[in-house]
Amino acid sequence: MHAAPVGIRQTLLIDADDTLWQNNVYFEQAIANFISFLDHRTLSPSEVRAALNEVEHENIQRHGYGVASFHRALVTCFERLSHEPVTEDHHREMERFAVSILAKEIELLEDVATVLPQLAERHSMILMTKGNPVEQADKVQRSGIAHYFAAIEIPAEKHPEAYLEVCERRDLDLSQTWMIGNSPKSDINPALAAGLHAVYIHHPSTWVLEHAVLDKPREGRRLVEISRFGELLHWF
């Protein structure tokens, strides 16, 4: 079964974090370390996590995504919840939690290394990942897969306007353009709203702030759901 007409070249916009390589699991490890370090007297770990989620949501509006924003969120959350003054040692430890993420090797998800070259032979691919441009560009470079993509796009946020801007600037036919990713909030719903097709790839560790109910595609567009990257070959 194919998502697109056989033999017709499509444009595939492909997300990076938790679509091509592991990402959120490293943040989850840092958060677990932070919660243990805070060792709150009355709040449960899940309550501390809920407080951190709220702070992260606030920080995104002001500082965007990435490790620096995450570090700010840890500090702010610690200051709000701690029963003791925040010391330089506290600051150093929270910085260590955040910086540890940057040191992680790029771990491609299952099937990515073998599937990308096959997709690149059949279709045009653009890597589209949001976030801190320096951090994201560094991950793309270290991944070793940048050469499969015709272009790299790193918008600050993925909303319908961002998708339309890329499509207009690159003269893409919306009826033959697909967004592929693991985030309902950033990859799927805004792409559908912009008039693209979409492929939702389930990932067990998708960041909670990227969760959302999947929207329905508009008439003439398709939404495909798959469980792993390798299944793309059945559709494209």
Describe the model.
By secondary structure, this protein is an alpha/beta fold. The protein folds into two domains: 11-22 and 106-234, HAD superfamily/HAD-like (Rossmann fold); 25-103, Orthogonal Bundle (DNA polymerase, domain 1). Helices cover 47% and strands 11% of the residues. The chain contains nine helices and six strands. The protein has helices at 24-38, 45-63, 67-81, 88-102, 112-122, 133-143, 160-169, 184-194, 232-235; strands spanning 11-14, 124-128, 151-153, 177-181, 197-201, 223-226. Strands 3-2-1-4-5-6 form a six-stranded parallel β-sheet, sandwiched between helices. Strand 2, helix 6 (133-143) and strand 3 (151-153) form a beta-alpha-beta unit. Helix 1 (24-38) packs antiparallel against helix 4 (88-102) and helix 2 packs across helix 3 (67-81). It is elongated and about 65 Å long.
Helix percent reads 40-55%
- Please tally the β strands and state the result: 6
CATH A-level architecture of the largest domain: 3-Layer(aba) Sandwich
Give the C-alpha Rg: 19 Å
What would the keywords be for this entry?
single chain, 6-stranded parallel sheet, 236 residues, Rossmann fold, DNA polymerase, domain 1, 6 strands, alpha/beta
What order do the helices and strands come in, and which of them pair?
Blueprint lengths: L10 E4 L9 H15 L6 H19 L3 H15 L6 H15 L9 H11 L1 E5 L4 H11 L7 E3 L6 H10 L7 E5 L2 H11 L2 E5 L21 E4 L5 H4 L1
Parallel strand pairs: 1-2, 1-4, 2-3, 4-5, 5-6
Give a brief description.
This protein has 236 residues and is of the alpha/beta class. It is 47% helix and 11% strand.
